[in-house]
From TrEMBL:
Protein name: ATP citrate synthase
Lineage: Eukaryota, Metazoa, Ecdysozoa, Nematoda, Chromadorea
Family listed: In the N-terminal section; belongs to the succinate/malate CoA ligase beta subunit family.
GO MF entry, a single one: ATP citrate synthase activity
Keywords: ATP-binding, Cytoplasm, Lipid biosynthesis, Lipid metabolism, Nucleotide-binding, Phosphoprotein, Transferase
Domain ATP-citrate synthase ATP-grasp: 1-103
Location(s) in or outside the cell: Cytoplasm
Gene3D superfamilies on file: 3.30.470.110, Succinyl-CoA synthetase domains
Amino acid sequence: MFYEHGGVDIGDVEEKARSVHIPVRLDDSEMSITEREIDNLLGPCKDKDVIRKFIQNLYEAYKSLHFTYLEINPFVLTNGKIHILDLAAKLDETANFICSDKWSSRSASARIARSIEFPAPFGRDLTSEEQYISDMDAKTGASLKLTILNRHGRVWTMVAGGGASVVFTDTVCDLGGASELANYGEYSGDPSESQTYEYAKTILSIMTEGNPRPDGKVLIIGGSIANFTNVAKTFGGIVRAFETFIDKLKEHKVSIYVRRGGPNYQEGLRRVKDAATKLEIPIHVFGPETHMTAIVGAALGLKPMPVVPTAPQTTGQFLLSPERN
């Protein structure tokens, strides 16, 4: 939208302004707005060449820096130069791992880079653990999310996938476990083994802090059927976290319930079963032949342990070669 009279008290800008609609084309890196469209946008304005170049550069910056909103009101043109007097903008936080360096500003005097700081979710400051996971998430194309709901809760989750995290959380609440639900989050998008290890280690560190509860705690490691996440790789990181916190897990009487499917899930579940034997901790392991949330009722002590069928009723049990992991 463009209007040659900027500032305040100018009436209904949306009604007065000229506008051009630019379709979103994710596969197009070229300019999606033509000079003719810009000329029609500018109307009777003088010095169109200067403003046209400014709008083209502004549009490219908007795309490359992942803005979701940008308004300049007003800018002035004097002696062939444009001066921005006021600007309001929004950035897409999920592009942080792509644009963090571009977004940072550097003080010419102090030569100190300052990164963009996004407001904390839910209107509160992040805990140190949440901030740590958020920083990890910003540096990778995978998705690592963690929100602490109740540090003293008995029921903890480590769920792969945003959709699955909602389903597991809803199931815990539906079965009456809302008051004991300790966290909400997800790890997905094919995180590396080391990233999964750090994510799992962070959850276990909070879960095993303080004095042990007489009734112990439960950890639900769930997920649907992964599409491209290497289950064996991520479960390798989770098993490493178990080994790191083995003494604490036993002290806090932690019982672990696992249900997962997807590429290399057989190897991933085997590693978890081996860890249960080696570390001598109660880990109940299920694959895609078991309903996704069947382990929740068992973990809460409200339903019997799921029965594993003698023959797996799944398809797509394939392996990823090491070169593609």
